[in-house]
Amino acid sequence: MNKSLFIMSNRCQLTGKIYLSGNNVSHAKNRTKRLFLPNLQKISFTSEKLEKSIQLKVAASTIRTVEKKGGLDEYLLNT
């Protein structure tokens, strides 16, 4: 498994959230490596300052945070 492909393609474009590595644990306690991928969504945010929409690949948790802060412009100013 080539991890460099996962780093670039599975990265949140606003927060930089990437995969976590861990173990699958069977009932017999056998452990095998696995990856926990972020829940990425392709979404378009509207910027009031630029007066256009911007399409980004972001995690679902980031979408909730941007909406809580009041939009993309306020999120980028406060972070």
Give your account of this protein's structure.
This protein has 79 residues and is of the alpha+beta class. The protein has helices at residues 3-9, 60-69, 72-78; strands at 20-25, 31-36, 40-47, 52-59. It is elongated, with a radius of gyration of 16 Å.
What is the compact description of this entry?
By secondary structure, the chain is an alpha+beta fold.
Topology diagram in text:
Elements: H1 3-9, E1 20-25, E2 31-36, E3 40-47, E4 52-59, H2 60-69, H3 72-78
Antiparallel strand pairs: 1-2, 3-4
Helix pairs in contact: 2-3
Write down the secondary-structure element order: HEEEEHH
Give the helix/strand class: alpha+beta
Query: Distance between the terminal alpha carbons, to the nearest Å?
Result: 34 Å
Let me know the average pLDDT: 92
C-alpha-based Rg, rounded: 16 Å
Could you tell me the strand content as a percent range?
A: 35-45%
Strand order of the largest sheet: 1-2
Total beta strands = 4
Helix content: 25-40%
Q: Sum up the overall morphology in one term.
A: elongated
Biggest pleated sheet? 2 strands, antiparallel
Low-confidence stretches: none
Number of helices in the DSSP assignment = 3
